[in-house]
Specification:
Blueprint: H1 2-58, H2 61-70, H3 72-75, H4 122-125
Length: 127
Amino acid sequence: MRTFAFVLSIMAVMGLAFWAYSENYKTQHALGEVEDLRHEIGYLRETRAVLKAEWAYLNRPDRLRDLVGMNFQKLGLVPLSPQQFGRVEQIAYPQPEPEPEPDILNPVSVSAILPADTHIDTEELEP
């Protein structure tokens, strides 16, 4: 019986060692993926910063002004002036179409529903 317990405990230790070994490899693989993602994020941030700098360089007002001057015959662009702007009141907003009123198919006489001895004071109903 003692030998059986000894063999069983050795098998349990070997099983736990195999499990710990496989978990270690999974963890190392996940850490490698995280490191790769960090490098990719850094590269993309650097690329974004370069692209923003290039965009700012290409959108310089003096450069754009020179380009407009060179291509005036094709584009016909002129600088903006205050007379080109309008007021909000000048904007024509589309008006929604009114919904058609539904047809009354089965009219009901409300006065016929009230008992004969009920009195309605119409003076109280008028505003």
